[in-house]
Amino acid sequence: MKYSVPKHHNEKLISPPFEELGAAVESNRRRMEGYTFTIAGLSFPAFRRMARDEVLSLYGGGPVVLSAHQPGIPHMGVVEKLRLLQTLSAGNFASHIVLDTDEIEDVRAIIPLTRNGDRETKEFYLYRSDIPRAIFTIPAPRKEALGGTFSEMARCLESTGSKSIVSSFQRFRKIDEDVYDHDSNLGSLLASYLRRFFDYKGIRETTMSSICRTESWRAFARSVTDNIDGFSKAYNGCLGQFRKERNIKTPHSPFPDLLRSGEKIELPFWSVGEGGRRSRPFVIESGEMVDARGEKTGGSFLLPRAMTFTIFARLFLCDLFIHGTGGGNYDRATDMIIREYFGVEPPAYCVTTATVYPDLPMDREIELKIQRLKKELREIKQHPEKYAGPSRAATLLEEKARITSSRSGKLDRETHLRIKEINEKLRREAAGPIKEAERKLMKLERAEEAERPWRRRDFPYFIYGPTLD
C-alpha cells in the first residue's frame, strides 16, 4: 500500500491506527532487544545507550518517540506529526529533530487574498538564493526585510475578510518580535517560530547539525565508511529490488544508487564545504575521503542523507518514528536495507498527515457535497421508479414485469425495445428530481471553481489556530 495524502478537509491519515501505537512501541522494543550486531566495536544495546545519552536532552529512560522535519513554514499536514507526537508524550519521551542539515534555495509561503472580488493566492519568500546551501549555515534574514514581507502578507490576509486568520497572523508577528535574533541561523529562527506558535507541551527538540557533532553519529558514519563496499552493495541492491517490485522506471527513485567508479565508492552522506554547499564524498581503497574529482577532502563532519538519517534515528534513538507520507513511502526501501545490511527485522514506524483548509469565507465541505450530489443523481437515473409519481411508476413497472416474466432466455429485439421504452418513460416521470439535482450540482460546481484557489492544504501554519490539541 502506498501512503497517500487525504483529499478532503479535516481528513487525517494515521497508520497504524492511534489505538495500536502503544502496542507498536512495545513490539519494537521487544524486537530490538534481540538485535546482536555491533557498531564501532560496541554491542547494539551499548551503542544505543550512548546515542540516546548524547542526542536526547534530559532523557531519563522509557520509550522514545521521534518525529523530524526540515525547518521552514510548514503546512498543517506536517504539523499533524507534532500533534501526534505531543499526544504520545504522555507516557513516552517525545522529541522532534529539526533537519537543518537539509539543503535549500528558498523558504516560501503561499498566502490567500482577494482581488477585485476574486479569490487568489500570492507566493512570498522569507529567504531566497540562487545557490542551495545547508540550512544551518544560512544566517537569519535581515529583520527589516522580514518585516516588510510580513506587512505585505498581513494586507493580503486582511483582504480575505477572515478575522480568525488575521488574528492568527498577528500572533505570529508578535512571536517574531520576541524570538528574532540577528545572530541566529535561518534554521534555528524558523524552528523557534514554529515552537513558539504552537507552544509544544512535552516535546523536546534538537537539531540534526548538533547531532552530527556527537561521537555516536561520527561512530555510526565511520562504521559505514569502514565497510562501504558491503554497505553500498546492500544499499544499491535493495534500491534495485525496491524499484523492480514497484515497477519504478526512474533510476533516482526513491534515491539514486551510490556510485562506484574505479577505486572510488560514494558514501551515503553529505560533506559540507565553504559557503554551506553540500557535496558527495567518496572513499578510495586507502581509506582516504575524496570528492567527485578524486581530490582529498575533510571527513570529520558528515551530514546524513534521508536514508542514513532514518536508519540512525529508528535503530539507535527511538522506539517509534513518526513519518509523513513521503518518508513513509521511501522508508520501505530503508526497511529492506536494514534487513540486508544489519541482518535484523526493522522496527515498525508510524505515518500521519492531514488535509486542513484554513478558516476562509468559503464552503470547506463543498467537495464532499458535490460527491454526494453526484451519487444521488446517478441513483435517480438508475432507479427512476423510486422518484417518479407512484401511480404512474407502478403501472410502468407492472408492464415491465409482465413482459420479462413471459419471456425465457434471450430477449428478442421487439421485447428489448419495449423495455427500453418503458425505462425512458420512467426517466421522464423522474425528470423533475433529475433536473433539480442537476441544478444544485451546477451551482455547487460553479462555487467550487470560484473557491478553488483557496482550497489547498499547503497554506502556512501561522494562519491557523495556535493549538496542537
Spell out the blueprint of helices and strands.
Blueprint: E1 11-15, H1 21-33, E2 38-39, E3 42-43, H2 44-55, E4 64-69, H3 76-88, E5 93-98, E6 103-115, E7 118-134, H4 143-159, H5 163-179, H6 186-198, E8 203-207, H7 208-211, H8 215-226, H9 228-245, E9 260-261, E10 264-266, E11 269-272, E12 278-279, E13 282-283, E14 289-290, E15 302-304, H10 306-317, E16 320-323, H11 325-342, E17 350-355, H12 366-382, H13 390-405, H14 413-429, H15 431-451
Parallel strand pairs: 4-5, 4-16, 5-8, 16-17
Antiparallel strand pairs: 1-17, 2-3, 6-7, 9-10, 10-13, 11-12, 11-15, 13-14
Question: How would you sum up this structure in a few lines?
Answer:
The chain is built from 15 helices and 17 strands. With 469 residues, the chain is of the alpha/beta class.
